[in-house]
Design brief:
A hairpin with a 2-residue loop joins strand 3 and strand 4. The strands form four sheets. The chain has an eight-stranded mixed beta sheet with strand order 3-4-2-1-7-8-9-10. A six-stranded parallel beta sheet has the order 13-12-11-14-15-16, with helices on both faces. It has a two-stranded antiparallel sheet with strand order 5-6. It is globular and about 65 Å long. By secondary structure, the protein is of the alpha/beta class. 43% of the residues lie in helices and 19% in strands.
Length: 415
């Protein structure tokens, strides 16, 4: 099959949606198919074929509601690229961003079979997006197949309410190639983490939407002895992605009542500095590290972690929770996206008490969560059992290798 995957961003950027499309695309190539990814231009992208996946880049940003940052000729170039290159399958990953929104009004002009993976409809309850989702009721009917990540979330429920029946549920996952390959692991000594410390891990980008402030506050209030919080997240280097994230934040600020600036990374670094300074004086043996690490180092951190602490504000189906399963890392998570469903699937996590703001934004209740964090840190046997449950369920149901074959079957069926 000749397949086109369209997504807002791809390598060298690292984040959840990029990881989904990367894992699926590379594995479909391995299964014998031709795969191209259409995505945003990135100034640091030097390779346009990665592990057999061709990359076509376009200087476009934004979305249909907030407007596009692009020339008309570049938008037309993107449309023509999708229409005339003989693709048999065109799959759109994630709504509310340019690579999806430009195609929605012209779906009937695309000769390929069309698949849509909405990934949550995060702005469904935002009044500004009401016309967009009014049109979405019609657009969904132009797809040959829809793929949802959860049995019960706002995107699949929206589709059901509008009479859509041609859909599949295919979850996110984690890579057996990555997590079953032994690694030399000296990440703790490399980062200066004392040997007698337990390691609490958080992996999430500094977008302002990942609940880093709550993660740090919760860790500090728990007053855990001989414990390090390692928060790994890439800073937003790309100016186009910065613009897109700022647009989201400008909408969420009045909804959540939270201001997102100064930028998340700088705020986290400052908080960690003061925590570690006070700790050095009081000798509490508690550290907070804010790092931007390579993928190999991230895998090492997963392997070394005793617990994963995830207090994100806005998600669809968090990949990091599947990576916890694969790395035998028990997790505590906000009730965000389909985290509760992932806990049921995995048996390796617990929900933290969470406030929902306007059905759109999750905020962990810090004081109530402190007890849960302390209890799990103090119960090594429970953490071990949770870790084994998660790993077994991941290996049986949630490897990218198996998930890619499910996508392949969908593609073959609609052809």
């Amino acid at each position: 099959m000749k397949i086109l995957h369209v997504v807002e961003s791809y390598d060298p950027l690292l984040h959840g949606m990029q990881q989904v499309v990367k894992q699926l695309s590379e594995r479909l190539v391995h299964l014998g198919h031709t795969v191209t990814v259409a995505t945003s231009y990135h100034p640091e992208r030097n390779l346009f074929n990665i592990k057999g996946v061709d990359i076509a880049s376009f200087k476009i940003a934004g979305n249909a509601v907030n407007g596009y940052q692009a020339t008309n000729s570049e938008i037309e170039r993107y449309i023509e690229f999708v229409k005339i290159n003989g693709f048999q399958i065109v799959t759109i990953f994630a709504a509310q961003q340019w690579s999806c929104d430009i195609l929605l009004p012209i779906l009937d002009e695309i000769p390929a079979k069309k698949v849509f993976v909405p990934t949550g409809f995060s702005q469904l309850y935002n009044p500004k997006y009401q016309p967009y989702f009014n049109n979405m009721q019609t657009w969904l009917k132009s797809f040959d197949r829809l793929i949802f990540l959860s049995n019960d979330y706002r995107d699949i429920n929206f589709a059901k309410q509008n009479g859509i029946k041609n859909f599949e549920i295919i979850t996110n996952g984690a890579s057996a190639e990555e997590f079953c390959t032994p690694l030399e692991n000296n990440i703790q000594s490399e980062l200066g983490i004392p040997k007698n410390h337990l390691l609490v891990l958080n992996v999430s980008s500094h977008t302002g939407l990942k609940g880093h402030s709550e993660t740090i506050e919760l860790f500090k209030k728990a007053k855990l002895k001989n414990t390090t919080l390692l928060l790994i997240g890439n800073k937003i280097h790309n100016s186009r992605l910065k613009t897109f994230v700022k647009q989201i934040l400008s909408v969420l600020t009045p909804i959540s009542g939270i201001k997102y600036f100064p930028q998340c990374y700088d705020s986290c670094k400052r908080k960690s500095f003061y925590h570690n300074l006070i700790d050095s004086i009081k000798n509490n043996n508690s550290k907070i590290l804010i790092k931007d690490l390579s993928r190999v180092q991230i895998l090492q951190a997963y392997a070394a972690a005793d617990l994963f602490l995830f207090t994100s504000n806005l998600e669809c189906s968090p990949i990091v929770l599947f990576e916890c399963m694969a790395s035998k890392t028990p997790f505590l998570t906000a009730e965000v996206g389909n985290a509760a469903e992932i806990i049921n699937w995995s048996g390796s996590g617990k929900l933290l008490p969470t406030i929902k703001v306007n059905q759109n934004y999750s905020i962990v209740k810090i004081d109530e969560s402190v007890r849960i964090l302390r209890e799990l840190i103090d119960n090594a046997e429970l953490r071990k059992n949770m870790a084994e449950n998660g790993y077994t369920n991941w290996l049986n149901n949630f490897t990218w290798e198996g998930i890619a074959k499910k996508y392949e079957r969908v593609y073959q069926f609609i052809l």
